[in-house]
Amino acid sequence: MTCQSYSLFVLSVITIYFGRFGNSLILAQLQNDIDQLKADFNSSHSDVADGGPIFTDKLINWTERNEKRIILSQIVSMYLEMLENADKSKAHVRHIAEELYTLKESLPDGLKKMKDLTDLAKLQMSDLKIQRKAVNELFGVLLKLVETPASLKRKRSQPQRRCKC
Question: For the whole prediction, is pTM greater than 0.85?
């Protein structure tokens, strides 16, 4: 796959993953719009290949559906930000932006989750107060780790036991 087709690939993954484009005609139209957008941005320039892909490599590490929805939410937001500066008088730009806005509505707010991860990374674990708080929360964190969706379902489906006193 060439670097020129990465944006189409990422956009296709996003749209197919969320089932927005069941009709291949719409996807074909979107591909034509993206081809026109590539021409607008001169994406056949030789520097496009420098450093490799910017989005598709990130998707490899996100395997679970909910995880992918978080990273895809961020990617869609970045495409929308990019299109804010594009010429909206062009039909293909408007069409791509509309489809991305529609997709964004079905995605979780990745910014909040990203902020949580950033805040965790900034915690000073050498700080005694942070350590005390962490120790107080340790058992609760471990409970969350061992709590699987199957165990949650099993708990809900078991009938309530009544005391036979």
Answer: no
